[in-house]
Design brief:
294 residues, mainly alpha, single chain, Alpha-lytic protease prodomain-like, 2 domains, 64% helix
């Protein structure tokens, strides 16, 4: 799959240079985003095998996030450049000096991209209903397939009608598509870097489940964040009833089970206390604050 998308990127970059087509170059940027997404998955697998150390206690778990941020910035720079170049071609074209685009080259390379995208879609289709990541990749490939069709239509219009303006117009459209399709990636990276609560974790429900455990009075200084994809951590202080007959060890085991089994949290660190007076740390979020903000 990665090899197929790399073939598309290489072919479209070469085709764009030979034909002068901005649309092909813009589509190459969009295809690059797909290959980068697949590469990030491979990078995450490699990073997970790297050991932690005294300086990096989480190892290289966030390599995936940093690579995704770099990928998004690169894509937006490319989209901005393509948009600027397309507007420049509109100005030149309507001023009487349109850039000549070799429609034959665009049609040929667009056809190669279409065939490769059809092959990639066929490879992914069978597994797309069983795996969310594969389904996301399948949808990206379908989007690339539709763009390839649009590029071929623009090339045909250039060859038959001489519509020079269709190439910069399609370039603008693809540039917007690149920005829109990468927006979710940018938002996800931002949430991870500022240690936001993951969207699939209901913090209020998590605290409620824990406070229902016999012997637990209230939760405070609550933090839940994503280290990297599929690895969610939690830390909190738990005020317990000192008169309850269950030991702290039994309460702790039950709280960890709830966090992991019910809410999918990978790493749980809890500090059990019998009195708030003995807790001198600055709290970021107490249970009372959570109730007020819900």
């Amino acid at each position: 799959m990665l090899a197929l998308t790399v073939v598309i990127v290489a072919a479209e970059v070469v085709g764009a240079l030979l034909s002068g087509s901005l649309a092909l170059l813009a589509d190459a940027g969009h295809a690059f985003m797909d290959s980068a997404a697949i590469g990030l998955a491979l990078l995450a697998s490699w990073a997970a095998t790297r050991p932690a150390s005294l300086k990096r206690t989480f190892g290289f778990e966030r390599t995936e996030v940093l690579a995704a941020a770099a990928n998004a910035v690169f894509l937006w720079v490319v989209a901005a450049w393509i948009g600027w170049a397309a507007i420049g071609r509109f100005i030149d074209g309507f001023g009487g000096d349109p850039v000549e685009v070799a429609g034959g080259w665009v049609l040929a390379v667009g056809g190669i991209g279409l065939l490769v995208n059809i092959a990639a879609a066929s490879l992914l289709h069978g597994s797309s209903t069983r795996n969310l990541n594969v389904e996301a990749a399948f949808r990206h490939v379908l989007a690339d397939l539709m763009v390839s069709v649009a590029v071929m239509i623009s090339a045909t219009a250039i060859l038959i009608f001489g519509w020079w303006w269709i190439d910069p117009a399609l370039s603008l459209l693809i540039a917007v598509l690149v920005v829109l399709s990468s927006w979710k990636l940018v938002a996800s990276v931002f949430d991870v870097l500022i240690d936001s609560v993951p969207k699939d974790v209901d913090l209020d429900a998590l605290c409620s489940d824990m406070e229902d455990v016999p012997g637990v009075t209230v939760m405070h200084d609550i933090h839940v964040w994503t280290v990297t994809s599929g690895y969610v951590s939690m830390s909190a202080h738990v005020l317990t009833d000192p008169t309850h007959e269950a030991s702290h060890g039994e309460v702790l085991v039950e709280l960890q089970r709830i966090a992991k089994d019910r809410h999918g949290i990978s790493h749980v660190t809890l500090q059990l206390e019998t009195s708030e007076a003995n807790c001198t740390e600055d709290h970021h979020l107490d249970r009372a604050d959570l109730r007020e903000r819900t």
